[in-house]
Amino acid sequence: MSGTGSAATGPERTPAPAGGPHGVAAAGAPGPTGAAAAEPAWVDAHVHIFSPDVVARRDSYLPRDARFAALYTDPRARMATAEEVLAEMDCCGVETSVVFGFPFRDQGLCRATNDYVLEAMAAHLGRLAGLACVAPGAPGAVAELERCLDAGMRGCGELAPDGGDAARKELAGIAGLLRERDLPLMLHANEPVGHEYPGKSGFGPEAAAACAEAYPGTKLVFAHMGGGLFLYEAMPELRRILADCYYDTSALPYLYDAGVYKAVEATAGLHKLLFGSDYALLSPSRYRAGLQCLSPEGRAAVCGDNARKVFRI
Q1: 222, 246 in Cβ contact below 8 A?
Q2: What is the phi-psi region of residue 185: left when phi exceeds 0, alpha when psi lies from -120 to 50, beta otherwise?
């Protein structure tokens, strides 16, 4: 859940809209053809879904959560139901999507969001793998996560903590439960440089590394390339701290050019990178051209094998 207000264009990119990627979504590209269509089916590890009620009545939810309002006040900010996600998956050759709702500050709204994700999982077995959204600072967060994991969800996220010590402490119980279950916690992370845009927070590489150090043994997936945290895996000390950390590609075409894939390969390693589209913000098809810089083995790892291991799907 990240974005830019004006992204440079490259071989696989189009200019980002003026409000940032969470302000206006880009139109989906056509489905894969030729060699791309022959590749193994992908796993999309970062997909947002909303119930039809939230989509239809978004204006009634805006006053209830400041961050939701920041991202979705603009009516052009796209929201997708489970059925719309499945249609895009079929178009783009995605076998399984890791889906989640919105991390509202209200635990009751989180529970309603999780119920919709659970219903979608049950209706589309094998196609949708859900993550639970909880409000870490509100009572009942760990109990709600346990309920969702017991029902078959594959982790927790995408949560959006701030960069402070208090937020890290609020996540401790959640991280502990996930460590016991060998399931991941997905956290929103932002690059600490560049311009501001809706949804950009203070949770950057330093805060992400602090979480990794605070929760050893918990699998952490840092969205949006971890705000660049993967680069620090070139440091042996950080490589040890980040041993259980992964990075997803969500919103990558808005933030980086395709050279970033080679940067990951040279630092953290491609075994730690997960393809995630950030749909409905971006179609999975927007990533195919950039990923061609990787070997077939590298693409297989990034576009499916790694996510199947991390989320145990």
Answers
A1: yes
A2: beta
Q: Is 184 helix (H, G, I), strand (E, B) or coil?
A: coil
Topology (CATH level 3) of domain 39-310: TIM Barrel (3.20.20)
Is the pLDDT at 1 greater than 60? The verdict is: no
| Residue 210, H or E segment | helix 205-214
Q: Sheet of 220-222: strands edge to edge? A: 156-159, 185-187, 220-222, 245-248, 273-274
Number of helical (H) and strand (E) elements in the chain, helices listed first: 16, 8
Give residue for tokens 């979504």: 25
pLDDT tens digits, one per residue of 216-246: 999 999 999 999 999 999 999 999 999 999 9
- Condensed to tens digits (0 to 9), the pLDDT of residues 260-288 reads 999 999 999 999 999 999 999 999 999 99
* Non-local CB neighbours of 63 within 8 Å, separated by 6+ positions: 69
93 Rama class: left (phi>0) / alpha (psi -120 to 50) / beta:
left
Nearest to 272 by CA among 231, 250, 236, 244: 244
What does the alpha-carbon distance between residue 228 and residue 214 come to, in Å, rounded to a whole number? Answer: 19
Please give the structure tokens belonging to residue 136: 């870490």
Query: What is the rounded CA–CA span in Å between residue 167 and residue 136?
Result: 8
Categorize the per-residue pLDDT at 20 as very low, low, confident or very high, splitting at 50, 70 and 90.
Answer: very low
The answer to whether 135 touches 105, Cβ cutoff 8 Å, is yes
CA distance 19 to 27: 15
Alpha-carbon span 221 to 228, nearest angstrom: 13
Find the helix packing angle between 205-214 and 172-181, rounded to 10°. 60
Is the pLDDT assigned to residue 211 strictly greater than 80? yes
**Model confidence pLDDT, tens digit, residues 89-125:** 999 999 999 999 999 999 999 999 999 999 999 999 9
User: How many C-alpha atoms does 56 have within 13 Å on its Cβ side?
Assistant: 3
Residue 183, token pair as written in the block: 């399931």
Q: Yes or no: say if 128 and 168 are a contact pair by the CB < 8 Å rule.
A: no
pLDDT at residue 194 above 90? no
